Structures are given as C-alpha cells and as structure tokens.
Amino acid sequence: MVVDSLIRIPGAVELSTVVLALAFALDVTVSEFPQRVHPVVWFGRVVGAFDSEWRHPRAVGLGLAVALPLAAGGALWAVTALALRLGTIVGVAVAALALFSTFSYRMLLDTAREVITLTASDPDTARSRVKALVGRDAGSLSPAQLRSGAVESAAENLADGLVGPVLAFAVGAQLSLAAGVGAAATLKAVNTMDSMLGYRSKSVGTAAARLDDMAMWLPARVSALLLAVAAWDPGAIRRGRPWADRPASPNSGWPMATLAAAASVKLSKPGAYTLNEIASYPTVDRADACVRIVAIAGLLAVVLAVVVARSEVVA
C-alpha cells in the first residue's frame, strides 16, 4: 500500500491492459512456469486422480466437469482478490502471473517450428517431437505429413492456448481483475479436462468434452478470423468454410481450414480428414510461413482482448 501511494496507479480498465501486457510478455520471454509449480500441471494431477473406472461414469463426469473448473477458477480468483487487497501493484503482479499460467503461445510456436525444421534434417526426431503437438501415430508419417501436423496444431491450439484465455479474461475483467483471472482459469481448466479425459474410450470424460466444445465455440471462430486478418486474406474464412466441418471436433476445423485456405496448403490427418485437397502439403518454407501467420494472429488476439476489456459492455 505504501508503494501504491508513491506511484500513480491507473484505473481499473487500464489495469486490465497492464495485466494482459505483462502476462503476454511473460509468455513470450519465459514461455512456461516450471512444471513443479505450474498451476495447470497441479490441476492436471487433480484430474488424473479421477481418471478411473466408475459405476456411473457419465454422472460422475458431469459433476467433475462442472465442479473442477469452477474450483480452479475460484481458487485463482480468490488468490488474485487477496493480492489486490494487499496493494494494487501486488495484485497486478499476481493477476499477470495467474493469467500467464493459462497461456501456451510461445511453446506452441517453438515446438511447431522445431518439428518443421527437423523434417528436412532428421525426420525420425521430428516424428518424436510432433507427439507434443498431435495425438496421431507419427511412425508412418512422411516429412510433409509431419509438417502438416505441426501447422494444424499451431492453428487449432491458438484458440485454447491464447485466444480463449485472453478473451475470457477480457470479459471477466470488466467486472474485476480477479473475475478476469478466474474466467481465464476456468476456461483453461475445461480445456485441460477435455485433453485428459475427453476420449470416446473414457465415459467419465464425455461431459468434459461437450463442455469444451461449447466453451471453445467462439474462441475457435475468432481464431479463424484473426488468422485471416494476419494473412491479409479476409476471404480465407469463406473459402475454408466448406472444409471446417471435416474434423470430428465442431471447433478445430475453423482455424485449420482458414489457415489452409490463406496459405494455399493441404492439411491432412491420415484416415480422418483432408483440408484443401487440391493444394500440396506445405514445404518447409510454407510451413514456416503458416507458423508466422499464427504468431501474428496471437498478437492480434491480445490487441482484441485489450479492446474488449476496455469496452465496459458488462454492467
């Protein structure tokens, strides 16, 4: 509080901009929390404790899908609210750290670039590294298919690795910084539960998967719009729309199809879907260009979040 009195503290709306800027700067420079103290890793351990056989898995899964994300969001809301009571500077620092924990922007871009580079020099290592991005069996994938997987993942995961959390924060921050952090953490928790339990073989994860589909409906489509803008090709959304429903997910196809159209490349998961089949798989240079488009779209997402946070549309 003493420090606050010596420094001009901006208003609540400006504080949300500061938090967004700090969290994004942390992601770009630091990339990730150490795993031993990463809030998402901690949450994942909690989810893992419930990944077992249940007598009524769907009922248990529904309860978990609601309770665990709300608990995670509530915990970070409470921590941030308490920090703000200790002083604005402390509160902003804690809010930025908490929001940063929901991002995976730089890690996504770095891993995609690494896989793309390795496809030209060491395809076997690329097959090993691509497992950090996609769940498909990489053993028989060609270098071109590995590059496709890296580009697909970069486009798809832009939504849950950055766009979703920053937009959730921006909307919640119109109420308070703590509410913004809580909203972002809740959304990230929903994503995490889906990634861990949302498989057809796990009935306990059915509700988590459906909740993630609903929560990511808007971020996926905003991501597609941002990718089209980043590529200076607004028509890419329209051209990619016929392919957007080919992936099983109701959301992932939107950013992937838009990027396939904007970059004029074929993206394909063998045995599952092909986007823009009349084009060729991305070369190393084209794949790198696709990742650059994703990187620019991420910057635009933060700018959009600042605009939303300052719009004060929530009473």
From TrEMBL:
A single GO molecular-function term is: ABC-type vitamin B12 transporter activity
Which pathway is this protein engaged in?
Answer: Cofactor biosynthesis; adenosylcobalamin biosynthesis
Entries under Pfam families matching the protein? CobD_Cbib (PF03186)
State the source organism's domain of life: Archaea
Give the transmembrane ranges: 59-79, 86-105, 289-309
- GO terms for CC? plasma membrane
User: What keywords are assigned to this protein?
Assistant: Cell membrane, Cobalamin biosynthesis, Membrane, Transmembrane, Transmembrane helix
By its UniProt entry, which InterPro entries does this protein fall under? Cobalamin_biosynth_CobD/CbiB (IPR004485)
Keyword Transmembrane included in the entry's annotation: yes
What biological-process terms (Gene Ontology) are attached? Answer: cobalamin biosynthetic process
Q: How does it sit in the membrane?
A: Multi-pass membrane protein
Q: Transmembrane helix: is it a keyword of this entry? A: yes
Q: Where in the cell is it found?
A: Cell membrane
This chain's function reads: Converts cobyric acid to cobinamide by the addition of aminopropanol on the F carboxylic group.
Query: Would you identify the family this protein belongs to, as annotated?
Result: Belongs to the CobD/CbiB family.
Q: What is this protein called?
A: Probable cobalamin biosynthesis protein CobD
Species, as recorded: Halovenus aranensis
